[in-house]
Every structure is written in C-alpha cells, then in structure tokens.
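Appendix C. Worked example: Oxidoreductase
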Amino acid sequence: MPLLHLTSDELLTTTRTVRKRLDLSRPVEPEVLKECLEIALQAPSGSNRQDWHFLVIRDESRRRALAELYWRSYQQYLASPGAVNKLFADDPQRYLTQQRIMNSTAYLVEHIHNVPVHLIPCVNGRMEGLSSGDQASRWASILPATWSFMLAARARGLGAAWTTFHLDYEEEAAEILGIPYHQVTQAALLPVAYTLGTNFKPAPRASVENVIHWDQW
Ligand SMILES: Cc1cc2nc3c(=O)[nH]c(=O)nc-3n(C[C@H](O)[C@H](O)[C@H](O)COP(=O)(O)O)c2cc1C
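Step 2, the predicted output written as structure tokens:
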C-alpha cells in the first residue's frame, strides 16, 4: 500500500479524529488493515505479554448493532454536564471549537453504521478490582498499539475516530461479537475508512507552558 509523503512530525501532528471526512463508499482492503495492525503490534506491552486482540468488523448487521449501542450512549452523554458542547463556555475561542466537535460527533452518530470497518481493540483480563497501578499497566498494554494503528492508517490514506461511547454497553457489544466479556476488556471502537482528501492540519491546542512541570508540580 503506497504511503503518503509525510514527515514523522507531520504524521504525528496531523493524525486527527476523522468523522465527516470518512469515505463511506470506498471499501477498505483487508491487506491494508493487516499491514496497519502488524505495525501496531510493535507497540510496547506490560512484561511484553502482547495479550491484545483486534476485532475487525466488516459485517453490516454487526456494525448496525454496534451503532445502536453507540447511539444509546450518545443520547445519555448529550444530557450529561460533561458533554463536549457544555465545556469551556467562558472561553469564546475554545467554546467555538467545542461546538464544532459536537457537530462532527453528531454526524458520526448518524453515519457510524455506514463506516466500512469498525475496529475494536481488546486486552485480556478485566479492570474491575485491580489496583490503579495494575489498571494502568493493562490499559497501557493496548492503548499505545491502538494509537500506532491510527498513525499507520493515516500514513496509508485511512482515517479513524477514537471513540468510547459504545463501552457503556460493553457487555452487549461482547454478545454481538462473541467476545468473552468476563475474560476480555474492550478499549475503544474505531470507525475506519479512507479519508476524503488526505490533507489534515495540526489542531489548535492549549499551550505546552500550561502543562509542563519541570522537576516538580
Ligand atoms: C478516550 C477518548 C474517547 C473518545 N471518545 C469519543 C467518542 O465516543 N466519540 C467521538 O466522536 N469522539 C471521541 N473521541 C475523540 C475526541 O473528541 C477527539 O480526540 C478530540 O476532540 C480532539 O480531536 P482531534 O483528535 O482531532 O485532535 C475520544 C477521544 C479519546 C482520546
């Protein structure tokens, strides 16, 4: 699969959450997904356990069933005080960005069942009852690989959105997909497709000065 001409810094700063620019009509070849996952498997994992799994869902009826869970969770989220459009109301610039994200999120809710591939990264074990250190270790044994997948996908002209809405109904999703819920944790749901155009820009972010702490908090 040919790669886009991006420097490593361009790749790292332009791998965006893609929602409205997912090409819903272009199929994604299994080979390109496999290539991205092979790269993802180079990510670190606690004790090099590599106890990760990646469900690649192409089947339309399963995508529709997941979309229904996604929609249900989104409705609850909209009503919650933490909804993206309710944050930063006192900062006009940031509030505008939040409104744009909300608009794009609403688009994805309407169309997620039509995105040709849903990827669900999973890790062995459950988080319930683990110490925070053990939880951190287990999450960090799947999230870097998932981000590597997104980077590898971007390099090949694909886009994805990191989403977690369906996890409110993780057990139902496990039933739909045959995942052994009591032994395996789902980490996210990434709708994946080729992007409409490949030009993405770095996003405005709060200054590093606000978050960097040298030597002490
Ligand atoms: C842990 C996590 C959960 C997220 N969940 C969702 C989600 O359920 N639905 C969605 O549309 N976007 C979701 N996002 C995407 C964020 O809204 C997005 O990363 C943020 O707006 C910044 O946009 P950017 O990635 O393009 O810079 C999630 C991102 C992260 C890291």
